[in-house]
Amino acid sequence: MNLLQQRQPDEIQLISSRFGPRSHSYIRLNKQQELSRQQVLDKITSGIYKLSHHACQLCGGEDFVTIAERDRYSLPVRTCVCRHCGLLMTNPLMRGLDYADFYQNHYTSLYEGFQYSPAEFFENQKSAGKCLHDIVGKYVNLKNLRVAEVGCAAGGILSYFSSFCKDVVGCDYGTNFIDYGKTRGLKLHIGGVETLREERPDAIIYSHVLEHIFDLNKELETISEILPVEGLLIIDVPGIFNIPNVYESDFLKYLQNAHLVHFTAETLVALMAKHGFSKVYVDERCTGVFRNIGEPQVLNLVEDGAHLKLLEFLRRSENVRLLIKAKLLPRKLLVFVLKLFGIHKALRRLYRGLPDPEKS
Predict the structure, then answer these.
(1) pTM for the full model?
(2) CATH of segment(s) 118-292
(3) Rg of the Cα trace of the chain?
(4) Helical (H) or strand (E) element with 346
């Protein structure tokens, strides 16, 4: 990744004032999450985690507009859009070793507030695997292919895919998840994509992993070396234009320090083309299938003014968020009153047709 030693300050055009620095988390946290948030914040402010500016991971540009100065935890995370190609990314970034420390010591406790058991996580992954295969299976036939997954955790997605392909193999850095996946009969390695070189997969899955990768270009170069020509790359990342369907048009809820790059279908296709992957299918959820054609393609897939289109969408989403919030206000007020009189749980159970636990 290109590190910028000297650069002009970014122009600041915050989506709204609430995207500026705050002392408290935007989303509600439990005590464990609050503790983890403070630990991460202390490492940033004390300089244990060191920040540096980088060039755009898509076009190499150095001209950015800062649109947010915090994430949903109110950690000091700057989200910037590249003026040249419209890619949205975190900038400045911590060092690779800092992200490794974050994932090892803070990620689960901050994001979940509790520790999933590998068995629970496995079952959740199987459900995600079905959703992913329902989309991918419409466009490619995996029957005779060896399918690998990077960041597979316990291997639930691979377990589901195993019924539709020749063979599966995966890798992840979480040893407890890997150990559990092996008890379910899966072939799993501890590590990253490099561990798949000897496995010779025909297709590789990155499900909600690519947006976490520190150096996307290095990762994609390695993938293109491992996959054969005509091999498939299956990507599932959060899509910016899908925010209204997932986050109630609340872009601040979407922003999180672990996500280093934010994609639209257009920027995802352009990044894949840069590394020799041709689009088979992609949607604005940013679920896509790409085929390795062996040669990088010309980077002319992003329209001029892409960053302006993105900014317009995010500002429009901010207005929609306010409308959604206004519509939800009567419901929230009703819930507050019912809780005040101590009858909320009883009425909710009556509405859902559930038995009263005190009478059972």
Answers:
(1) 0.87
(2) 3.40.50.150
(3) 22
(4) helix 344-352
